[in-house]
């Protein structure tokens, strides 16, 4: 959302401009002549004026954001704007009258030197101090915005910021006073011997550097994840449950929540994690970590209702590996989260996953151990559950995985199914189904041209009466899936990741009736909006349903340390894993979650073991088909209400599927009461879920 960026940017620009204005204001009394004094006075006001414009922009942005909810502006209302308003008041009451007095001294085209008394007027605290106060207010706004970003806002934090403001304001006033006194005593604007000044300035700088260094060291240390901890034992949050103090149920271990342990599987697969050298489309050779030497891993196709057995063998990935069935609501022990539902499988080890594929749809699998690294390195593949009551079989049913691979020269190349021009043949009049899977960390634009098409499923769940689309861009959430179907025309159909001519861009898939023909250019049309697509259908969950629990998740980012690293820390309710909230639920409950993104990055939120139904976006109810997702893209400034039924006991990750964000703290859990995990994470264990 543009106003979020405007707000962030104007806050930074304001601090820079007011700093320049304050610096200029503090130097005008050293003007050699009255004419120079006049110019310097004018320039100070020019800088102050530009800063004032950005303050107006910032204020406008805050007003606009306020309409989206108080969560977006509470820190601005409690601290930033009133601090700035006080500075503005000081400027109006003190600085502008003082400027009039200075202007009376200054004279156009006068080469006269300033009298000592003139210099005193031009160095008066009433002149210098207000803009310095404005600079402090805008500097504190930046610090609060980028380093503290907290939710809910604590009164102690607000008081601390105001205290710093008051102290800095007093210190600057006293400094301006003493400077004036010195000027009155010596009668000269000289600032004393440069040696003494150097010692003072050097000392101040050294102190500042030391303070920052101590702060860095302490925060880095404090941010370390303990050597050993249970992921299930952290801050329990209980939403608005009616009787949370009820007697604890007998404890159930995650390890006991398995799929069917007996019975002959309908489908058996073996996935062997191994190091493989792959050749990128650029010709570059790279080490990849793959399943069965393939990139992406083998496409697993099963029938709805099949008992599936997958044996994971780790041949030589030293760090260990697991398999998470993304979007498949498997029993908890089959979920593949290292340190939560199992220990990572080390080289030479194996783990057997058994579950019934209950819901037809497009899913994927990937390692959930060091996931930000291992998915990037290639440990992922597609998992497709075909429906039992099969509709007319498509003549082309193709999974298209989107994944980027960074190369040595910094750019990314697409791997998977769209890394070069590929052609598929389909007879005119037949049904084509494309299953898009985004295995990357960022939303992926997809363009389908040459035919009207329908989005028939989101994250594996069919949509109700989806309408025909054309010239529409599909923005697929990281970790998400869209199924697209169309009836094959007599001419070529194209799929690409960018708009424009197909001839220039190699990253295309062409589906055509014969070996030749190119599709029309991809147009950057409107974005597909799942909130108003298809027609409504009754479901168990709605905006007027009575919910047993309601959780609010506020996403934000701030600069700081996570596990010893200085980074953009990605927070949920101001906290990071393992201190991020644990959302308690009980089997059978209806749970509502409100997601709010207050930061400046996109967060595709992924809840394991459940599908969530999106109820509203930015206060507007979903009007189309029920929108059921497992990975919901929450863009900056957006608010979503979503709900799920707690029907799959266990402890489930609820994290950002920009896996780099998950690795920077954006990872929480939904925990069923009475369930515990015998597994641990931390540097003293092998498990690193993110
Ligand atoms: Cu994120």
How would you describe what is shown here?
The longest helix has 33 residues, at 34-66. It is elongated and about 100 Å long. Strands 23, 24, 26, 28, 29, 30 and 32 form a seven-stranded mixed beta sheet that branches. It has a six-stranded mixed beta sheet with strand order 1-25-34-33-27-31. The protein is built from nine helices and 35 strands. The protein is an alpha+beta fold and 690 residues long. Helices cover 28% and strands 29% of the residues. Residues 241-247 have low confidence and may be disordered. Helix 1 runs antiparallel to helix 2, helix 3 runs antiparallel to helix 5 (125-148) and helix 5 packs antiparallel against helix 6. The protein binds copper (II) ion. Copper (II) ion binds next to loops.
List the helices and strands and how they pair.
Blueprint: H1 2-25, H2 34-66, H3 74-105, H4 116-122, H5 125-148, H6 155-186, H7 194-222, E1 236-237, E2 252-253, E3 267-279, E4 285-291, E5 297-303, E6 307-314, E7 324-326, E8 350-356, E9 361-366, H8 371-377, E10 380-386, E11 396-406, E12 412-416, E13 422-425, E14 431-438, E15 444-449, E16 454-458, E17 461-462, E18 472-476, E19 481-487, E20 493-496, E21 508-512, E22 526-527, E23 549-562, E24 565-572, E25 582-585, E26 590-597, E27 603-607, E28 612-617, E29 620-621, E30 627-629, E31 631-634, E32 639-645, E33 651-656, H9 659-662, E34 667-672, E35 675-676
Parallel strand pairs: 1-25, 2-35, 3-6, 5-10, 11-14, 13-21, 18-22, 23-26, 25-34
Antiparallel strand pairs: 3-4, 6-8, 7-9, 9-10, 11-12, 14-19, 15-18, 15-20, 16-17, 16-19, 20-21, 23-24, 26-32, 27-31, 27-33, 28-29, 28-30, 28-32, 33-34
The structure holds copper (II) ion.
């Amino acid at each position: 959302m543009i106003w979020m960026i405007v707000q962030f940017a104007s806050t930074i620009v304001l601090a820079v401009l007011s700093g320049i204005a304050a610096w200029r204001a503090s130097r005008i009394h050293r003007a050699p002549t009255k004419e120079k004094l006049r110019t310097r006075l004018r320039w100070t006001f020019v800088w102050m004026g530009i800063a004032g414009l950005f303050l107006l922009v910032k204020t406008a942005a805050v007003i606009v954001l306020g309409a989206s909810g108080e969560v977006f502006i509470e820190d601005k209302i409690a601290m930033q704007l009133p601090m700035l308003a006080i500075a503005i008041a000081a400027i109006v009451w003190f600085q502008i009258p003082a400027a009039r007095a200075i202007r009376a001294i200054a004279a156009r085209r006068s080469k006269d030197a300033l009298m000592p008394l003139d210099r005193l007027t031009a160095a008066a605290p009433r002149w210098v101090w207000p803009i310095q106060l404005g600079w402090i207010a805008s500097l504190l706004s930046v610090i609060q915005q980028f380093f503290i970003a907290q939710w809910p806002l604590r009164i102690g934090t607000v008081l601390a910021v105001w205290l710093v403001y008051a102290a800095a304001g007093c210190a600057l006033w006293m400094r301006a006073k003493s400077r004036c006194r010195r000027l009155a005593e010596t009668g000269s604007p000289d600032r004393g011997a440069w040696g003494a000044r150097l010692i003072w300035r050097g000392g101040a700088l050294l102190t500042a550097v030391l303070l920052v260094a101590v702060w860095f060291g302490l925060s880095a240390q404090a941010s370390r994840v303990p050597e050993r901890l249970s992921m299930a034992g952290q801050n329990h949050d209980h939403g608005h449950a009616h009787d949370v103090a009820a007697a604890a149920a007998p404890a159930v271990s995650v390890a006991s929540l398995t799929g069917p342990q007996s019975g002959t599987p309908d489908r058996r697969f073996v996935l062997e994690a191994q190091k493989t050298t792959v050749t990128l489309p650029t010709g570059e050779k790279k080490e990849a970590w793959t399943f069965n030497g393939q990139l992406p891993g083998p496409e697993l196709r099963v029938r709805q209702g099949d008992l599936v057995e997958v044996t994971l063998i780790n041949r030589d990935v030293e760090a260990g590996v697991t398999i998470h069935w993304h979007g498949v609501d498997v029993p908890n022990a089959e979920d593949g989260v290292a340190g939560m539902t199992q220990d990572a499988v080390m080289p030479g080890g194996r783990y057997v996953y058994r579950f019934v594929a209950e819901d037809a749809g497009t899913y994927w699998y990937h390692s959930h151990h060091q996931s930000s690294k291992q998915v990037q390195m290639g440990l992922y593949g597609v998992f497709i559950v075909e429906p039992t009551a099969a509709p007319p079989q498509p003549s082309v049913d193709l999974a298209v995985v989107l994944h980027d691979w960074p190369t040595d020269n910094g750019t990314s190349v697409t791997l998977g199914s769209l890394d070069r021009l590929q052609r598929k043949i389909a007879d005119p009049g037949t049904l084509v189904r494309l299953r898009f899977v985004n295995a990357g960390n960022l939303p992926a634009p997809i363009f389908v041209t040459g035919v009207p098409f329908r989005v028939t499923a989101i994250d594996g769940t069919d949509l109700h009466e989806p309408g025909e689309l054309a010239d529409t861009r599909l923005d697929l959430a990281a970790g998400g899936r869209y199924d697209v179907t169309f009836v094959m025309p007599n001419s070529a159909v194209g799929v690409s990741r960018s708009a424009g001519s197909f001839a220039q861009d190699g990253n295309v898939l062409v589906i055509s009736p014969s070996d030749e023909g190119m599709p029309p250019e991809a147009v950057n049309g409107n974005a597909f909006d799942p909130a108003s697509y298809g027609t409504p259908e009754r479901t168990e969950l709605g905006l007027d349903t009575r919910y047993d629990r309601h959780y609010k998740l506020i996403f934000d980012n701030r600069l700081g340390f996570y596990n010893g690293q200085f980074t953009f820390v990605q927070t949920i309710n101001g906290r990071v894993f393992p201190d991020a909230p644990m959302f308690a639920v009980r089997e059978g409950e209806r749970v509502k979650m409100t997601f709010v993104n207050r930061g400046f990055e996109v967060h595709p939120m992924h809840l394991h073991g459940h599908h969530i139904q999106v109820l509203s976006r930015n206060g507007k109810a979903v009007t189309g088909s029920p929108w059921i997702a497992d990975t919901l893209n929450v863009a900056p400034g957006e608010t979503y209400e979503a709900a799920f039924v707690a029907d799959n006991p266990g402890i489930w990750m609820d994290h950002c599927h920009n896996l780099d964000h998950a690795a920077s703290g954006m990872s929480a859990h939904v925990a069923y009461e009475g369930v515990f995990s015998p597994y641990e994470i931390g540097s003293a264990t092998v498990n690193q879920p993110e």
